[in-house]
Amino acid sequence: MADSNESWYARPVFFVADGRQALQFYGDLGFDEAWRHERDGSVVAAQVNREGVELILSQNPERAGRGRLFVELYDGQVAECVESISAAGIQVTDEHFGMPVKAIRDIDGNEILLRDDTLGPADEGTIRANAAASTAARNSVPGCS
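The structure corresponding to this sequence follows.
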């Protein structure tokens, strides 16, 4: 069991073929650069932030394009995001991930899935699985019940 004073801070990592190009893409997507690490003129790692989402970009062409980030927003916010993202010339597609989502793929194929309840209901199996996972997570954290 984890120490009750333990506090985790996690950030997903998207592997990208070219760190500099990825920074440009995520800047166009509305992310702000928090930091970068360069080696021999290449951006080998960087962090970008947008509205509480922190994402690390790591230059590794062999592993690029396999990431996925699911972002749950408040009702109506997905439409606002899609409007601004589309205005920047970035394609947004309608997809399904156990529920309707809007999907954005970066230049390497990493995915950001946006969701709010205005997109429609989740599949019944997804609702049950999410409820069970949420209950299990709350029960595993000291002080959460």
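The longest helix spans residues 124-140.
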